[in-house]
Design a protein that fits this description.
Belongs to the RRP7 family. This is Ribosomal RNA-processing protein 7. InterPro entries: RRM_Rrp7 (IPR040447), RRP7 (IPR040446), RRP7_C (IPR024326). There is one protein chain. By secondary structure, the protein is of the alpha+beta class. It is built from ten helices and six strands, in the order ββββαβααααβααααα. The protein has a domain of 33 residues. Helix 4 packs parallel to helix 9 and helix 8 packs across helix 9. It is flat and about 95 Å long. The chain starts with 6 loop residues before the first strand and ends in a 7-residue tail after the last helix.
């Protein structure tokens, strides 16, 4: 086994032995770099997390679980979050329901749509998203070369044990095996020709399943478009501050254009903000009483400052400047 530094900066070097494969019938060593997790925005689990970089491209949570189990035993590893998965979660914050609608409809629904609070509505939303999602064509993702991952352990003591185990592995040259005996058989889909054949098969999904996904997405798009048109219609029919209703091109019952809908939404939001401000001082006597209280507070503070100044003058005595 080749030897090298056990630490590089804040990182501990963890050599991992890669067993020979039919495609490459030789032993190889892959180097993982591990340190305590210290993100720019701290979280509650940072103390029991480890940051890994240069993770192998075929990494899965099962692989990392087996790796840490070989280092410190079972029961220490909780979960792993890979770099590409974290980015995908951030970019997919817009659900298929949000994507199945025009931009102006999305803004209108976000500003005026009813909030879903009931559990059955949340379940219905999840079912709609699943129905509108196209079938996956890969059985197993490949990571970006040199990618990163964050491993969550059971407690802070587990972090210390892992770092000590890495140092011990560098001294004894007994490196953990990637995908060793502790990796459950059949839990991780294989790579190579089997993986590519499965991808080729999944690239041609069942026509009925594909048609069902397309129909569900189209239905979501049409429904959101209709909801946006109804909201725009309601906004146009609501009177302004003076009680007048603005009649747009095509009459109040005609569908609104994008500019008209956005303008109506802006006026509606301004009116709502003004109503909230008016409700703060709904009765005039409340406003008068509040002003009186503010004046009394100012007079009290002024009187307190005057008394403090007089006390200071008495304490110092009369000041006679020198000639």
């Amino acid at each position: 086994m080749p030897s090298g530094p056990s630490t590089i900066g804040d990182f501990s070097v963890l050599p991992v032995s890669v067993p020979p494969l039919p495609s490459f019938p030789k032993n190889a060593v892959h180097y993982l770099y591990v340190r305590r997790n210290a993100p720019k925005i701290p979280t509650a689990t940072d103390a029991r997390s480890l940051f890994l970089t240069n993770v192998p491209v075929d990494s899965t949570e099962a692989h990392l679980r087996a790796l840490f189990t070989s280092l410190v035993g079972a029961g220490r590893f909780e979960s792993a979050a890979f770099e590409d998965e974290r980015k995908d979660a951030h970019s997919q914050s817009q659900s298929p329901i949000d994507a199945a609608q025009p931009a102006h409809a999305a803004r209108l629904l976000q500003a005026h749509g009813k909030k879903r609070k009931r559990e059955d509505e949340e379940a219905e939303r999840a079912r709609e998203e699943a129905a509108a999602r196209l079938p996956s064509t890969w059985t197993r993702p490949l990571r970006k070369s040199g990618g990163t991952a964050v491993v969550l352990l059971a407690d802070e003591k587990s972090v210390e044990q892992v770092l000590k185990a890495i140092g011990k592995a560098n001294k004894t040259k007994k490196y953990p095996i990637w995908g060793g005996d502790s990796l459950p058989q059949g839990k991780v889909p294989p790579l190579g020709s089997v993986w590519l054949k499965a991808h080729n098969r999944l690239s041609y999904p069942d026509k009925q399943a594909l048609q069902a996904s397309v129909d569900a997405f189209s239905a979501l798009f049409a429904r959101r478009e209709q909801e946006a048109a109804e909201i725009a219609k309601r906004l146009r029919n609501e009177p302004d501050e003076d009680g007048f209703v603005t009649v747009t091109r095509g009459g109040r019952a005609a569908p609104a254009s994008r500019n008209e809908a956005e303008e109506a939404k802006r006026k509606m939001l301004e009116k709502q903000d003004k109503k909230k401000e008016e409700l703060t001082n709904f009765y005039r006597f409340q406003l008068r009483e509040r002003k009186k209280e503010e004046q009394a507070e100012l007079l009290k503070r002024f009187d307190d400052d005057r008394k403090k100044l007089e006390a200071m003058l008495v304490k110092r005595g009369k000041f006679v400047p020198e000639a």
